[in-house]
Design goal:
InterPro entries: FAR, FAR_NAD-bd, NAD(P)-bd_dom_sf. The protein is of the alpha/beta class. The chain has helices spanning about 10-20, 30-45, 60-70, 90-100, 105-110, 135-140, 160-175, 210-220, 225-235, 240-255, 290-295, 315-335, 355-365, 385-410, and strands spanning about 1-5, 50-55, 75-80, 115-120, 145-150, 185-190, 260-265, 270, 300-305, 315, 340-345, 380. Helices cover about 45% and strands about 15% of the residues.
Length: about 425
Amino acid sequence: MVIDGPSSSSIMAAIQATSNSTSSTTSSSNHHRQHRIGTSSVSEFYEGKTVFITGGTGFMGKVLLEKLLRSCPGVSKIYLLIRPMKGQDAHERLQQLLSSPLFDPLRKERPQDLRKVLPIEGDITQPELAITASDRAMLERSVNVVFHSAATVKFDEKLKLSVTINLLGTRRLVELCKRMDHLEALIHVSTAYCNCDRTEVTEVVYSPPMDPERVTTLVDCLDEPLVDQLTPSLVGNRPNTYTFTKALTECWLREHCEGLPLVIVRPSIVLSSAGGPMKGWVDNWNGPTGIIAAAGKGLFRSMVCDPNKTADLVPVDMVINLMIVSAWRVGTTKPKELQIYNCVTGQRKPITWQQFIDLCFKYMRKHPFSDVFWYPNGSVSSNRTLNTFNWIFLHWIPAHIIDSFVWLTGGRPI
């Protein structure tokens, strides 16, 4: 992983220390002592602190919560913004979240720490985040660190909803943060692809093709069908509404967060964890994870992709370590300038998509999935004609043959 940004060497040292906070030894006593000093500095920063997390029920939010509890045992309280959903209130959803296998080691070793996690019922899409007046007052009095990871990450999300969640949701959170009496760090999770229209992306906020306020006004005033018609022209040369609204949000933050201890973290494609407590843990089928699962079952065998391009993939625990450490750094050094970190593969140890696919198939065959439909195999190509040919003969025809067989035997077609 490469982290580019101000004082990246000190950040990397602290991240390395945080990554080794629960285990690992080294042959060099000095090196080990540096890890302990770095780890102590980060964990000590969180002692007695109150943390507020949006997006805590999502993939990255769960890993962030577990890491804070495990590696920063002195943290006082962690509040999660949770929206009632599917007949469950915030308390019920929190209990469901904490029952995840990800928290099994904590539940076994330090079950009392789970009581530090408290739900705040609310909704990122509503005014004042739909938080009650009493809860808002409590957050304003007590919160020291805010992690904002709530977002819609759907590439095909309608622009109106994407603006509401990614841009307006961030604006509402910032309004709350400005009223916090003891705020020391505000970490906003963006994406390395919000500037994917550029050939080089440094650690600055680039101006988007449209003013965020103008886009917000358009979305508020126009009906959704009309917004849908205008979306291609509004998004411009960005590939989807996700990257577009993330770029708008960064621009808005730059213009309206002066005086706030703000850090923008830009991860690339986030994958399952590389380290503890559960190596390889993931809880969704987004992005490459879904493709890997389908390929492992033998269902996915061809895709349009340039095999020679860099697969910019980062494990979720490395992104979380950066978020935790960046809050420590902004809270202790109090820089005057906006801090931005690109959390990406970079050019140090990149792998191509072809190398990534070869590794996936290697380990799929070594550790096969259960209920495999077909031997795991396949290819990627930038040639769309070849991909269409492969899709017909490797996806469409086999799928119809299997469905026909299932139907003839009295089953339900897939």
